[in-house]
Input
Amino acid sequence: MTVSEIASVLGMTCVAGREAMDREVTSGYASDLLSDVMGHAPEGAIWVTSQIHQNVVAVALLLNLSAVVIAGGLELMEDAIVKADARSMAMLATPMSAFEAVGRLYQLGVRGEV
Amino acid sequence: MLGAWTADLHVHTFLSPCASRDMSPGAIVNRCREVGLGIVAITDHNASGNVARTMAEAEAEAEDQAAKATQAIQATRSIQAGDAAQTARSESGLVVIPGMEVCTREELHLLTLLPDLAGMAQWEAVVRRSLTPGVNVPEVFGEQWTQDARTGVISSETALLAAPTSLMLEEVVREVTALGGACIPAHVDRPSFSIIGQLGFVPEGLNLAGLEISRAIRREQALARMPHISGYGLMSSSDAHSLGEIGLGCSLFWIREPTVAEIVLALRGAEGRRVEIE
Output
């Protein structure tokens, strides 16, 4: 399933990195600690978080994730938007809580590593 | 006797991956003088490699200013050259405080200020052991440059400074306090990397010197939004990542001398000392 398909089915808005919306999502990860994500998120994962700063984009790029979902109706900071656009990292936003967003992703067949 | 010192205690150099490439120690010292700062703290992310160079630049700048002022003083008054130089120097020096903005395990930013370079070297050794393993990826996080204090040669720092350390907030406060330093949680009003953003509140029983509010908010606004921080001394600083930002947030410290110990006393309002946010 691509980032674009997920965004359209779950009604998530792409707020940056539109060029990367056709990336394939191969798994999922949820955490608000960068150190945890850096240590455990698998390549190709869609990452659900409530952090909004530019290091979120940097970590997603470093790990070659497929997309980031900013949950809870939070707004991504301007410098993060610029970075995600420049480096093509798809950033989605949703008013859903992180719990709800992860649940909906799971329903669509996205799985974490067990 | 108390004197008023304008201080910006949160400035990054080009060692911080997110800072502008023109943030060299020399350029920072010049800009500090231009905007009229008396004290600056160099606070890069999880490293202090440019503190010594900034001190050296400030020293050189003071010597330079003093030489010019000495000539001016001697030209107008008939006093001894030595006295004139002394007068000129004490009026022109920018004080550089060794600092570091540490990202704790909770992923909150804490300004740590150390009394001198020796203390900072000890503190940096602790932080070094606690960095996230790995090397910096400049294309993702940004370049990290250090400038040698003596030679001025610039080289790349390869450690991963953008990632958090493994040090817990309490450990940082304990270690820095033991070295005679001060801990000040950074930009507590901001959602990202702040003690309140990450934990929701300021834990009790921590030996914090005070709290920093960002330049985006006024003291009254901060207290109205976060009434539970009213027991702490507040200061404002720029968190400058580019030259033009230096001094945009600063605080006036009424202190006896420009030292970390006096800054702590001012934040705590001891014996008439105080901090005014400009």
